[in-house]
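User: Assemble these into one structure.

Assistant: Restating your components, then the assembled model:
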Amino acid sequence: MSKSPFNPDNQHESTSHKVVVALERISEAFRVLLWNEGKVHGLSPIQIQVLIFLKYHSQEKCKVSYLADEFNMTRATISDTVKALLKKKLITKEPEPDDARSFTIHLTTRGASVAEETEQFTREILIAVENMNPESMALLFSGLTDIIHHLNKAGIITVQRMCQTCLYYRKNHMGAEHFCELLNKKLESTELRLDCPEHELISLEQ
Ligand code: SF4
């Protein structure tokens, strides 16, 4: 059995264990900040996350099935979230022209304004990141994208619209470490995207 990162003795011996514990603390901060924002607006964390997602993503992604994959939740949980947001008049739903059982979800004017207020829940985390020097921030971003990519390949987090899982992404191509064939340009490490609107998923087997 591998050593636990939660054992302080292991942390003293290993930077990787300390990094895991640090990531856990940061995930705790996101959880607390989301709950605090939810208390102000009378919303649950997932209700806030769905509102923010709807604000920035195209119509074909604003469906129960996509949201369930996006947030790694069951369709039943997302359906309950959608029902609650409909009741609060923060969203509306529109049936698909070719399938009356399926629908897309849209923010109402009030929903858009709540999304705009609640998306500020990360402000303290952003302040801490912006206080870093550019080199440390670039290294942090590179390390985090590697971790996210690994978790995606391991099937732990599902939907990722990041360069490393995109059909158009090329590694070590045309003299560049990262290259986008759609944009036909070299991407610096800090230009790699985590949520690209043009992302096309490649199969994980590739
Ligand atoms: S289309 Fe977007 S996600 Fe895909 S490689 Fe280009 S920039 Fe990255």
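The chain has a mean pLDDT of 93.
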